[in-house]
Design goal:
Elements (H helix, E strand, L loop, with lengths): L3 E6 L5 H9 L5 E5 L10 H13 L5 E4 L3 H7 L3 E5 L1 H11 L7 H21 L4 E6 L10 H18 L4 E6 L2 E4 L1
């Protein structure tokens, strides 16, 4: 496996399982969770998926819940699995009041966060596997918030992919090298 890999695909395609399989032989693994905490009362299905992910990981893996993706990429120890970039993008939009404010007021800061993460990824030595939803694989989205999320996720995925040695698209649990 290359040192830096972006694993992308649709919802429930097997991205996380495949990403985890890429680092299973590593002596030390940190599982970075950069997105929002999941409230089981608000989204029980998502909370169940998070619990299933945790249950299948080896007990020796360290879980790091860190919203500052650049900091996690710079300081976390061992091989890294970042799951998931799309959750981080959703959290970052919320953190910058992007769901409520004019995009031109906060998007430059969003870009700064993505650039900082890309720079940290470029500087990182060792194995890093990023997991993210693939943006725009569906039809037209009429909801403006969903359109904005998809555009920003697409930008983020493309920017981080530039710093990766490999990009894998997961379809029905099978990996396609791009």
């Amino acid at each position: 496996m290359s040192a830096k890999t972006l694993v992308t695909g649709g919802v429930r395609s097997g991205k996380s399982f495949h990403a985890e399989s890429l680092v299973v032989a590593e002596p030390q693994v940190t599982y970075v969770v950069p997105g929002p905490e999941v409230d089981p009362s608000v989204d029980p299905a998502h909370a169940a998926r998070v619990a299933a992910h945790r249950a299948r990981r080896p007990a020796s893996w360290v879980t790091l819940e860190e919203h500052d993706l650049a900091a996690a990429l710079s300081t976390a120890e061992g091989a890294l699995v970042v799951d998931c970039v799309s959750d981080w993008v959703r959290w970052l939009i919320g953190e910058l009041d992007g769901w409520d404010e004019a995009r031109e007021d906060w998007q430059p800061r969003f870009t700064e966060y993505v650039e900082a993460a890309a720079a940290a990824l470029a500087a990182r030595r060792g194995t890093v596997v990023l997991v993210s939803l693939e943006a725009g694989m569906g039809g037209d989205v009429l909801d403006l918030g969903a359109q904005m999320f998809r555009e920003l996720l697409g930008y983020t995925n493309q920017r981080l992919a530039l710093e990766c040695d490999d990009v894998l698209l997961i379809v029905a649990g099978r990996a396609l090298t791009l």
